[in-house]
């Protein structure tokens, strides 16, 4: 089974994360499809790294530990027991079965640092079949609620 090296994002990861975010397939499957500018990204990234309610992780293959190929974000709900996960896999790494590994690896690390979280939700666009399958393979179940036009929700009870 393939493994990934996962760690919290740091300031030096900013450019790579922006580059991955603006890849055409990523934009097409994102909830927000616009190109993100450098200024927008830098403001978002600084706020994200400073936030206590948002955790950002990056992943790489063991053979190339400095080559980030995946990003995973968790937004912690005000209740403190639930978080929403969002993933991004670099286009060059897609189609290799890495997304479920990215999800499970990041969830495991997130749990270590956030033991109060009992539920993780994922919001996936209807047309993003690859991500739907990835979340199911990572142990999530499709959730009937909340209902949102154009999206399906997946739930993982921890």
TrEMBL record:
Residues of the N-acetyltransferase domain: 4-158
Pfam families: Acetyltransf_3
Protein name as annotated: GNAT family N-acetyltransferase
């Amino acid at each position: 089974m393939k493994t990934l090296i996962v760690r919290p994002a740091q300031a030096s990861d900013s450019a790579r994360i922006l580059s991955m975010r603006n890849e055409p397939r990523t934009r097409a499957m994102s909830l927000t499809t616009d190109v993100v500018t450098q200024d927008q990204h830098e403001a978002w990234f600084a706020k994200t790294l400073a936030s206590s309610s948002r955790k950002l992780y990056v992943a790489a293959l063991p053979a190339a530990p400095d080559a980030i190929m995946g990003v995973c974000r968790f937004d912690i709900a005000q209740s403190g027991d639930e978080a929403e996960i969002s993933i991004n896999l670099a286009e060059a790494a897609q189609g290799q079965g890495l997304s479920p590994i990215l999800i499970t690896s990041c969830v495991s690390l997130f749990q270590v640092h956030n033991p109060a979280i009992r539920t993780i939700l994922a919001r996936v666009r209807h047309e993003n079949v690859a991500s739907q399958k990835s979340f199911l393979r990572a142990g999530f179940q499709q959730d009937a609620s909340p209902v949102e036009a154009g999206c399906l929700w997946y739930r993982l009870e921890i």
